[in-house]
Amino acid sequence: MAAVVYPRIESQINPYRDNVQGKANEPICVAGLLDRSKQILGSELKGMQPDWTLEEIYDRLHHNAPRIAIIGGSPDHPAHIMDFQTIARAAIRIWQNGGVPFQFSTPVMCDGTAQSNQGMSYSLQSRNAVAQMIVNQLEAHSYHGAFVIQGCDKQPLGVVSALAHLDRVRRERGEAPFFATFAPAHVL
Predict the structure, then answer these.
(1) What does the pLDDT look like over 169-182, one tens digit per residue?
(2) What is the C-alpha to C-alpha distance for residues 91 and 182, in angstroms, rounded to an integer?
């Protein structure tokens, strides 16, 4: 069964085609993510040979294949201690479908841990901080979409707020809409 290949993104904005920094910096991040993903999944990939090279990654970036950020949470929160497996599966699948996977995480404050101490004062503020961090990262690297690993507490609302804001801003600028999917893979 052949995989469906994502269509190229129609956009004049492509720092991976037009900017030496984008061309130089990011292909190695993608290769590192895919190499780690193959190591993590090991026997689960049974016989799959890596089909990524720096040249193929560079080509996809240059031709505006969908750049998809896999957004996880911090491993000091119980809902995110297994993110690395979900990230690995998502990265491999995004690549197999013609996209370019990237990965980053946000801090996730655990309300349960913060109860009865000064940390609880930061609970609601953390939602806004997460939203700002996500918008900053997605805009800075010109990602087209996201695969979001959901957890619990305030982080999911911060993510949704960021993605809705980003989609609205991009549409107002006449750019392609931002797309996302959410994986409630762990504790919710």
Answers:
(1) 999 999 989 999 99
(2) 14
State both tokens at 95: 């690549």
Q: What are phi and psi of 68, to 5 degrees?
A: -115, 120
Rounded to 5 degrees, φ, ψ at 177 are -65, 155
Total tally of structural domains belonging to the chain: 1
Nearest-angstrom CA–CA distance, 69 and 188: 21
pTM listed for this prediction: 0.90
Residue position matching structure tokens 């349960």: 112
Rounded Cα gap, residues 6 and 147, in angstroms: 14
Residue 168 lies in a domain: yes
Does the pLDDT value for residue 6 go beyond 90?
no
What residue numbers bound the domain in which 50 lies? 15-183
Quote the CA–CA distance of 165 and 39 in Å, as a whole number: 36
